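ENTRY TYPE: protein
WANTED: fold as tokens:
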Amino acid sequence: MTHYTRHINAKAETPALKLLLDYPAAAAALSMSRGALRDLVYKGRGPVVTKIGSRTFFAIKDLERFVERHREGPTD
């Protein structure tokens, strides 16, 4: 096995770490429809968005903050 082959095999075994989610993935993560998420973002009440070119993404940490801001009840 060559160094190149080992490198390819190692990459195949390493799960990809997603830092940004697109609208469908973010909506699924939040258990809501894409339309509901788009509406919240449009009205300025949704999670923070990250724009790269013309594409819109959501950072995992921003989705987590959004959920925390909307928690109700005891926070202990």
